[in-house]
Amino acid sequence: MTIQTPVKKAKHIPTEREQAFLDTVVNAKYDRQIIAGIKKFATGNVPEDMQGFYSPEELQALEDLKGTGLDVEARMPVKITRHYFDIAKTSKPIQVLVKASPRETYDLDGSADPGKQMSYSPVEGLIHKYELGLIYVVGTCSAHCRFCYREELIAKKEIEREDGTVAAKGMAQLVDIVSYIKEHNRLVAENGGRHPDTGRERLREILMSGGDPMVLTNKNIGAWLAGLSEAGIESIRLGTKELAFYPDRFDATFFDMLDKFHVAYPETRFRLMVHFNHPDEFLKKDENGNYIDVPGGGLEWIESTKRAIVELGKRQWLTVDNQAPIIKGINNDPDALRIMQRELKRNKVENHYFFCGRDIIGHKAFNVPIEEAWRILNESQKGLSGVETHARLSITHYKGKTEVVAVSNTPAPGIPGGEKGVIVMKLLRGAADAPDRGKITILGRNPDAIWFSGYNDRVIYDEAGLFDEVQ
Ligand code: SF4
Question: Which of 145, 248, 369, 395 could form a disulfide with 356, with the two C-beta atoms 3.0–4.6 Å apart?
């Protein structure tokens, strides 16, 4: 028998500048008091005040599905922090967000990869679209949203790749990502600004995602920031829900790392992409469940979240943007979204995108129909000022990010197919190429549609080519 020597994986070798920065970074320890797994609730192995979080009937219903094809926790593991539990205690929407429920698996219809993300993955852990790359740097978060689109990553499910092989999604490795960026950008530069094969432009931005990068140590986050900067990335985004799940992670050691990173790499922009679904995640409530007015304007925030937001706001060289899906039972509520948009903008957080749900397996319990999501967002923006209404409603077509621009309330006379009114979509960016930006698609209305496929039979005008292929 021949014993195979394991192939040694190449390691990223930091430059002197990287190393000098990394030598200054300090890690801290955090006590998120995480409860992971429904079993802990079922066996009472949780602090006393958490014991009634699931009723005996709820626990029994989940237990009954265990090991079957409808096993809720096999779809998405249960996880909650003490901070988020304290919010959930008095918030129905947050309970829907974080509490497992049998209804999640009643309808498992849907696609494993409706946005065809894997078609854009040239390196393990990287999705390369437009001038932007998304990297999976970690496969978990401090708590788990039941509606997560990345459930295959978090639950470590095996997925089918482009080449037909089946394997769990792997994490991005710094050494691979740096070498891909350098090679891609070299070819683009040599070829007059476009990649000779894909036609893509220079890779300028990276979104660190997962999972939640804020569960990594400061040194680990710092290594990514410095490595990507050395590779020529101009702008790094970090996608996180940690401000909702465990805001104390944004402590002095984290800001110290960020400040030192900025000193070492002043040319790199840093954008924190935060994820608040509902104002209950950051606003305090009184004993009657009402938000608390602050004299002089605004509402009172949860202290630890406010502290983090104020610290972020002090740093002119970074930006903070919120983006969140509109989810049934959580934030399909114009009043909640109005309060959230106003209060975030007041605290220097830009409202970037709201997302339509995806036609993903196990997502039916959370899907809000596309036209309803548009109505909710539009309604929520009534009464807000122009700067508070920057958020757009986006839906991720495999061709690129698409905006749901408008839905008419009345029939569109003279437009065949528009008898019930029309919905207008606009391609914000083609996934491979920029020139398609701004092209539109007009569809006859279908109030029940949760995905493009709901419009296959009512395409009126398709300049954007969203229906070149049957969805
Ligand atoms: S924070 Fe994001 S990645 Fe993490 S569980 Fe929630 S939706 Fe999924």
Answer: 395
CB 213 near ligand 1, within 6 Å:
no
Quote the pLDDT of residue 1: 46
Which 3 state secondary structure label does DSSP give 377? helix
Atom index in ligand 1 nearest the CA of residue 153 equals 3
Which residues, given as ranges, of the chain have pLDDT below 70? 1-8, 111-119, 158-163, 167, 431-434, 470-471
145 Cβ below 6 A of ligand 1: yes
Q: Which of 99, 117, 140, 144 to mutate to test the pocket of ligand 1 (most atoms within 8 A of CB)?
A: 144
Cβ of 212 less than 6 Å from ligand 1: yes
- Single-letter amino acid code for the residue at 218: N
Q: Is 239 in the pocket of ligand 1 (CB under 6 A)?
A: no
What is the per-residue pLDDT across 248-300, written as a single tens digit (0 to 9) for each?
A: 999 999 999 999 999 999 999 999 999 999 999 999 999 999 999 999 999 99
Reported residue count of the chain is 471
Q: Within 13 Å, how many C-alpha atoms sit on residue 124's CB side?
A: 13
Is 69 within 8 Å of 45 (Cβ atoms)? no
SS (H, E, C) 9-34: CCCCCCCHHHHHHHCCCCCCCCCCCC
Task: Give how far Cα 366 sits from Cα of 93, 274, 361, 445, Å.
Answer: 12, 20, 11, 21
